[in-house]
Design a protein that fits this description.
Elements: H1 2-20, E1 27-29, E2 35-39, H2 45-55, E3 59-64, E4 83-89, H3 94-97, E5 108-113, H4 117-131, E6 139-144, E7 147-152, H5 157-167
Antiparallel strand pairs: 1-2, 3-4, 4-5, 5-7, 6-7
Helix pairs in contact: 2-5
Length: about 170
């Protein structure tokens, strides 16, 4: 009885975690084609970070961004990100991040989740346009669906590519 209860509790915890971090369609379908009661929730930046950091072990964090502390003042605004986290990457040389604020993309990166893929793409294009004239602030930006993964330019292209691969599994 105890083993059955423990297994059931573990299964519920696993399903809750998977559902909370899922971004699939609003309902899952059973083998007979009928919608089941398992409902997926939209992906959040926190869930996206957990998935990315499982694939990129050097990612550390996350740092949660709220509307009150968002330096860009974009969180929750129309056509802007609905959630955001920042993270450090242990491969970024320590001498390069001295003086940077906690949460700066240069320390590792950030994940921003939007209401639509169009909004995520617009944000990535905007960032790249602004940073084009400021090479010291350049960054890698990877959009997959509604998720924008921003990665420090202090990482090599090969190191940053691991984030691109991980971003391909999101949304």
């Amino acid at each position: 009885m105890r083993k059955t209860l423990t297994t059931a509790v573990s299964l519920v915890a696993l399903l809750t975690t998977l559902t909370a971090c899922s971004s699939n369609s609003p309902s899952q379908h059973s083998s007979d084609g009928k919608a089941s009661t398992l409902v997926s929730m939209p992906i959040t930046a926190d869930c996206a970070f957990r998935r990315v950091s499982a694939a990129v072990s050097s990612a550390r964090g996350p740092g949660f961004v709220t509307a009150a502390i968002d330096p860009n003042h974009l969180l929750g605004r129309p056509h802007q990100y609905t959630s955001k986290v920042t993270f450090d990457d242990s491969r970024v040389p320590a001498d390069q991040i001295r003086g940077m604020d906690k949460g700066d993309v240069g320390r590792g990166g950030a994940i921003e989740v939007f209401g639509s893929p169009a909004d995520a793409n617009a944000r990535a294009r905007y960032i790249q346009a602004v940073l084009k004239s400021m090479p010291p602030l350049a960054e890698y930006d990877y959009v997959h669906g509604r998720v924008l993964v921003r990665v420090s330019h202090y990482l090599t292209p090969k190191q940053a590519a691991a984030y691109k691969t991980a971003a391909g599994e999101l949304d």
